[in-house]
Amino acid sequence: MIGLIWAQARDAAGRPVIGADNAIPWRIPEDFGRFKAITSGHPVVMGRLTWESLPKRPLPRRTNVVITSLGAVIGMATVPTHGEGSTTPPTMVEVAGSLQEALALAADAPGGDETWVMGGARLYAEAIDVADRLEVTEVDLEVEGDTFAPPIDPETWQPASTPDWTTSASGVRFRHLTYLHL
Ligand SMILES: NC(=O)c1ccc[n+]([C@@H]2O[C@H](COP(=O)([O-])OP(=O)(O)OC[C@H]3O[C@@H](n4cnc5c(N)ncnc54)[C@H](OP(=O)(O)O)[C@@H]3O)[C@@H](O)[C@H]2O)c1
Predict the structure, then answer these.
(1) Protein residue with least CA distance to atom 33, ligand 1
(2) Which residues share a beta bridge with 138?
(3) Would you kindly state where each structural domain of the chain is located, as residue ranges?
(4) Which residues of the chain have pLDDT under 70?
(5) What are 75-120's pLDDT values in tens digits?
(6) Which Pfam families does the protein's record reference (predicted)?
(7) Residue 67 beta carbon below 6 angstroms from any ligand 1 atom
(8) Residue 157, Cβ density class (10 Å: 0-12 exposed, 13-18 middle, ≥19 buried)
(9) Are 150 and 163 in contact (CB under 8 A)?
């Protein structure tokens, strides 16, 4: 199973903003919690800029596969050691030169029956063609951005439910939509 996971707001033109200045221009703690619950124990695949934008690298208890043409990324050496016999999924970092290579590395990683592509824009646009599932958090906010989510073609993707809006502890309204490939 290959899933894409992202959160999107909208700009004044209605475009689905996912980032601005290599950061996410809102903060929804509940969405971080959901991201962690969905992806922990499974490999995550991301572009180099998304990797560099993470406040703490690598994401723990997951294999972090970073796509770059550079052959290496900052922070690779900070991977904590994993005690022998530990039952916690290991934290690992792998570097790939393409989406195809990244997905192959992810499939061989612990929990690789499920891989989560976690951005950014170019990766979402490329990976949506091979994905089985989309986990999209809609954020009820108008913001200016420079990075956008891919279009979700209703001929290809069906929402699994129509959830209600929730108000975050941070005051922003949001809702989670799961789309399944038709
Ligand atoms: N809202 C959300 O859910 C969410 C999620 C993730 C990210 N974001 C935001 O998105 C922005 C970052 O996204 P981005 O689109 O600018 O950058 P990105 O996709 O994270 O990284 C771009 C870099 O990744 C490498 N890359 C990506 N796709 C590749 C491919 N198919 N083949 C080879 N290399 C590839 C290249 O690295 P090299 O230049 O090293 O070759 C490229 O320059 C930030 O603002 C971040 O906060 C938001």
Answers:
(1) 98
(2) 8, 175
(3) 2-73+90-181
(4) 81-83
(5) 887 777 666 777 788 899 999 999 999 999 999 999 999 999 999 9
(6) DHFR_1 (PF00186)
(7) yes
(8) buried
(9) no
CATH number 3.40.430.10 given to 2-73+90-181? yes
Residue 19: CB atoms within 10 A of its CB come to: 23
Locate 54 and state its tokens: 């993470």
Beta-carbon contacts of 55 under 8 Å, excluding residues fewer than 6 positions away, are: none
Q: DSSP character for 77?
A: G
Bridge partners for 167 per DSSP: 173
Q: Is the CB of 48 under 6 A from ligand 1?
A: yes
Q: What is the pLDDT of residue 83?
A: 66
CA of 51 to the centre of ligand 1 (A): 8
Name the token pair of 77.
Answer: 């050496």
Alpha-carbon distance values, 56 to 1, 23, 60, 166, 174 (Å): 26, 13, 9, 27, 24
The verdict on the CB of residue 70 being under 6 Å from ligand 1 is yes
